[in-house]
Amino acid sequence: MNSLISKTLIPSIFLCFSTRLTLTTNSLRHFKPPSLPPPRLMTSDSSQRVFQLKLDPVTGNSEWVVIEDNDELPEFSKEPLLATTSYLDMLNDSYRNKVFRLAIDKTLTKPCHVLDIGAGTGLLSMMAARAMGLNGMVTACESYLPMAKLMRKVLHRNGMGKAINLINKRSDELQVGVDIPSRADVLVSEILDSELLGEGLIPTLQHAHDKLLVENPLTVPYRAVTYGQLVESTCLWKLHDLYGNEAKASDGIYLVPAGLDTFIHVKSQQYPMHCDAIRKETKLLSEPFKIFEFDFWKRPDSHGETEVQIKAIDDGSIHAVVSWWILQLDPEGTIFYSTAPGWIKSPANIGKGNWCDHWKQCVWFLRGTGMKVSKGEEVLLEASHTETNVSYNVNVRVPQTDIRQHDYRSGGFQLLLSSERIATYGDNKWRLSMLAAVRNALQGRVNRLCVVADDSIFLTLLAANLSKTSHVISLFPGLRDKGAQYLENVAKANGFSMDRVEVSEKRKACLTINDTHGKKVDLLIGEPYYYANEGMLPWQNLRFWKDRTLLDPVLSEDVLIMPCKGILKACAMSLPDLWRSRHCLGEVEGFDHSVVNTTLGACGELPAPKEGPSLPFSIWQCDESKELSEIFTIVEFDFSKPISPCYGKAQVQFTKHGLCHGFVLWVDWVMDAENSIIVSTGPDHRYWKQGVKLLTKPVAVGINGSKSTSEFGSTVVEAFFDPAISELIIKHAFS
Ligand SMILES: *[C@@H]1O[C@H](CO)[C@@H](O)[C@H](O)[C@H]1NC(C)=O
Ligand SMILES: *[C@@H]1O[C@H](CO)[C@@H](O)[C@H](O)[C@H]1NC(C)=O
Ligand SMILES: *[C@@H]1O[C@H](CO)[C@@H](O)[C@H](O)[C@H]1NC(C)=O
Ligand SMILES: *[C@@H]1O[C@H](CO)[C@@H](O)[C@H](O)[C@H]1NC(C)=O
Ligand SMILES: *[C@@H]1O[C@H](CO)[C@@H](O)[C@H](O)[C@H]1NC(C)=O
């Protein structure tokens, strides 16, 4: 990890500090930029300190804390520190490791000074030291303290402790003459994300060329080239165009009323995604085209722009630009690595093999319903990049619409929602079921008080619209004033006036009877499944339950709580690719990595009695998967009562033959007491992550009564939920 860098996904409890922490749809490698930057280090011994954004998933509060030492973390959070990161997946990408090894061996033919920026476990540094017969000098720069500590162990294990000079600083804090004796002759570094630039490649290279490297240094990699392709894909369209999708709903609720069509949208950014998972629903509208080229061996510019003329190869609507990159590791162009989707058959893509999650393709959404093109038509793509990101604008030859004009029309007001929430809000079926649930709840009740527990703008509109006499208080803990401003703008179109709707000004989720004007709450509603901060496990969304518990003193006796309960569901599954990517590490290109297993959250082949952590994944993005059992219930969380520890147990029959790699767990949110309206967040739904508990060894399973005695017919799964730490402990026993 380096300046602007973090190779980590949001761990469930802690977010690591890094200047740039990205987070996009399925990113497992990066963090989201926290709204507050970490405080500057005030002490002189800064190298021994690390900031963590400590996030309590149940209360939703977060704060920056200084961690002097990993060992000072509370017991329960020690393991997850790096366990939910994608370091493991990255180290298990044998193709990646191999191309770096080949290129380093080829480049380092004589002893010299090598600098490794963002060194991680030290793999590239060790490759460099070995290539020089341990006669050169290697400086490994790693700013993230827990990672640097892990690297020290790995180096020691491989007898490289003396050969490599490990510096626990960001590369832009290194000084020649202080930290390193001289400028380095060679840079080896892998600080690339799916978007290429997100981990700070450009500023890091700029600083390195200015201050840390000799003139004309050698670098591994040598160059990266980004490519794109125009696609039509309804599922991608649904992820960003709420206005267009809402137009098809017919429930009389207008999240985006006519004329305010740019009020709500997704952030304009690249969304990392395994595009092979949507291949069947995707129509390719162009051949792949080259966009940008970045040379590592010279100082890059902070900004760049280019235009590409593209010929449409089919009729359709351009909904998105899918992009990827190809890394050329050596100057001669014989060693490559590509993040292209599987449908691209370029030589650089051959031999890659296994699915991996640390690099995916990126998707850039075109605004609105897309751009219609006919076969043979020319399209102009304008691409530009900043220091940390790439963006596009697509026009037919002559620029037609400028999005900035739209933004101007909405008076600059914009509510940014996640693409998953946009897709759900635009889903007619989901809306109708919410409508039915809230209508039933408000039926026959007048002058009621309804509290929206979270940031749900849809439920606020619904409650205000459906009952002309009720009072609605929305807590909007994340949206705050922005939410209030939004409601004022859309109130008229949704048939209510703001004198019945208010946004709580309090910072806490907890209201007192004074805040509710002396009234008790009759209806408490929310969309708890959206507390799902990117990297959270499904049961960490039970923050709703905690909030409900805090509100207990103001709830009326016959209060309706929606959802009224959460059902923890699970299914045994075959997940060969995911399992492989979370496999324990032994030798990696000849270097012993067995000390990293536990810290990096390895699951597969973990020596007993250790167990891997539960990890959040979107199953539909995990390549091959197959359900081997029926979906079963483990435990129910009853929101009509205050939060408490819960325990449940289920006996499960396998319904198919196969190799079971683990259990996928999720919560079904039951809206009404009749159990008729349920929001499921299971693996057949795309907008949520599931929790995955991988087995240390895959187990052959079969239908009960099968002839093969080596197959298991059933299993028992137990789960214990501890609200104090939002953890779910899962046990299983095959029989
Ligand atoms: C990654 O895991 C697989 C297990 O499926 C293993 O065969 C492979 O060697 C691992 N790769 C590395 C680099 O350790
Ligand atoms: C892209 O980079 C620019 C400049 O660094 C920054 O202002 C902008 O917020 C970035 N956009 C995204 C989506 O991260
Ligand atoms: C919402 O209010 C509008 C205006 O009063 C009304 O036309 C519409 O039917 C309402 N929607 C629902 C779902 O009742
Ligand atoms: C409500 O307000 C009154 C008067 O300001 C105050 O005495 C009382 O303590 C408040 N009650 C709560 C629960 O905050
Ligand atoms: C890590 O995994 C490897 C491969 O399964 C194993 O040989 C090694 O003992 C493990 N190390 C630890 C510390 O668990």
Largest sheet: 7 strands, antiparallel
CATH topology of the largest domain: Rossmann fold
Mean pLDDT reading: 86
User: What is the helix fraction of residues, given as a range?
Assistant: 10-25%
Q: What's the β-strand tally?
A: 39
Query: What is the rounded Rg?
Result: 27 Å
Associated small molecules: 2-acetamido-2-deoxy-beta-D-glucopyranose
Spans where pLDDT lies below 50 across 5 or more residues: 3-51, 66-80, 398-409
Q: Any idea what the shape is?
A: globular
CATH class of the largest domain: Alpha Beta
- If helices are DSSP runs of H or I spanning 4 or more residues, what is the number of helices? 15
Reconstruct the topology from this structure.
Layout: E1 14-16, E2 50-55, E3 62-67, H1 80-83, H2 87-91, H3 94-107, E4 113-117, H4 123-131, E5 137-141, H5 145-157, E6 164-167, E7 184-189, H6 201-212, E8 213-220, E9 223-232, H7 234-238, H8 242-246, E10 264-265, E11 271-273, E12 283-284, E13 289-295, E14 304-311, E15 316-318, E16 320-328, E17 336-338, E18 361-365, E19 371-373, E20 378-385, E21 390-395, H9 403-409, E22 415-416, H10 419-425, H11 428-442, E23 449-452, H12 457-466, E24 471-474, H13 481-490, E25 501-503, E26 521-525, H14 543-550, E27 555-562, E28 565-574, H15 576-581, E29 587-588, E30 591-592, E31 615-617, E32 626-627, E33 632-638, E34 646-653, E35 658-670, E36 678-680, E37 690-701, E38 714-722, E39 727-734
Parallel strand pairs: 4-5, 4-7, 5-6, 7-8, 10-22, 23-24, 23-26, 24-25, 26-27
Antiparallel strand pairs: 1-2, 2-3, 9-12, 9-13, 9-16, 11-18, 14-20, 15-19, 16-17, 16-18, 20-21, 28-32, 28-33, 28-35, 29-30, 31-37, 34-38, 35-36, 35-37, 38-39
Helix pairs in contact: 3-4, 11-12
Bound molecules: 2-acetamido-2-deoxy-beta-D-glucopyranose (5 copies).
